[in-house]
Amino acid sequence: MMDALRIPPDCSAKFDRIGEEFLAAIYSAATDRQPHNVEVLAELGHVYTRLGRYQDGLEVDHKLVRFAPEDPTIRYNLACSQALLGLHDEACSTLETALELGYDDLHFLTEDEDLRSLRGYPRFEELLRKIKAPDSGIQDS
Questions:
Q1: Residues 44, 60, 46, 50: what is their CA dihedral angle, to the nearest 10 degrees?
Q2: What pTM did the predictor assign?
Q3: Which residues of the chain have pLDDT under 50?
Q4: Are residues 77 and 115 both part of a single domain?
Q5: Domain tally, the chain
Q6: Which of 5, 10, 121, 131 has the most crowded CB, counting CB atoms within 10 A?
Q7: Of all helices (H) and strands (E), which one includes residue 77?
Q8: In terms of domains, do 22 and 86 share one?
Q9: Which domain holds residue 85?
Q10: What pLDDT score was predicted for residue 9?
Q11: Calpha distance 18→11 (Å, rounded)
């Protein structure tokens, strides 16, 4: 009887996607009602990224930067969206800004899959060399 109730792996992935699409619809409706709600916008951006809707995520990240221009994590997330879309120079510039604003999680920055397209990109590698320098003030946690 238990085998009959087991969900096949391909169905599980479909259910996950449906759940993410539902979340995107809920967060999108919430931002229509509260367009300046930074927390909901951030969650919407994360859901868009998980769904592979990188352009939509980029648009959300640009809104977030307008609402919280001094937030280093919001800048970091914008850089991730830019990298996912292959906008390497823009992503590097945004990462530099995030670091200037106080972003300091070097370990996450070097391991984040959203930034995978930047690995080996000369400007990104130079940025990593600078922040790994002992006098950079950034710690590898």
A1: 100
A2: 0.86
A3: 1
A4: yes
A5: 2
A6: 131
A7: helix 72-84
A8: no
A9: 69-141
A10: 72
A11: 10
